[in-house]
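Dear colleague,

Thank you for sharing your sequence with our group. We've completed the structure prediction you requested, and as agreed, I am returning the results in plain text so they can be pasted directly into your records. Please verify that the sequence below matches your submission; if there's any discrepancy, let me know and we will rerun it promptly.
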Amino acid sequence: MICTMGTIKKGILGGFSGKVGTVVGGSWNSISYMRSLADSYKDAKTERQVCQRGRFSAVVAFMKTIAPYLRIGYRNCEAGQSPYSAAMSFVLKNAVTGCGDEAVVNFSKALVSQGGLTSVADAAVEVAGGKASFTWTDNSGSGSAKSEDVAMLLAYNKDRQEAVYDLQAATRADGSAELTLPAAWEDEALAIYLSFQSVDSRTVTKSICLQDDGVTQEPGGGGTGGSGEGEEGTFG
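Please find the predicted structure tokens below.
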């Protein structure tokens, strides 16, 4: 095997042609030049990257439909972090299983709101007749709970990757509220959540997942997509 090395034409201070270590020398129009070798190409589709992209895609498919809800639900996130980013970070870390095209959200572990406001007691939901009926025990006066705290209802359709929600459905003192569901959703897999925000909108409760039907979401976040009732899209 013959190795080709650089040739110095005019002594140690002169130009050279060929390769010396990581430097390539040559000339163009009688002008000598040197350049460094380009870094070797690195495949951007490593196993770890493919895994993370799939997990990220699955979370985005869920969260892009409920952006306005997250804006309230994660309003108490750390300084310098947007509510959407805070929600993405939490769900990616705590509520995703699988990798790549097999990644899915574990909706029972996903939080759509996080805050220090005291939650309600004995919360439950029943889906029938095209609506989700929520009930809870009014625990006003317990911790930071107040009777005028506002209920926020959310239903996410896993099959269609669509969501409907009501950000001002009732008060804590009411003890119940209803959320109308699209007629086409009958017998489809839903994840249903209940949260509360204070009347001054300064703080929220940690969300409660009241129903988590068998996961039928397309792995990797595939599907038709959709938006909730209200604003659409993500936010900074």
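Summary note from our side: Confidence is low (pLDDT under 50) at residues 216-236.

Kind regards,
the structure core
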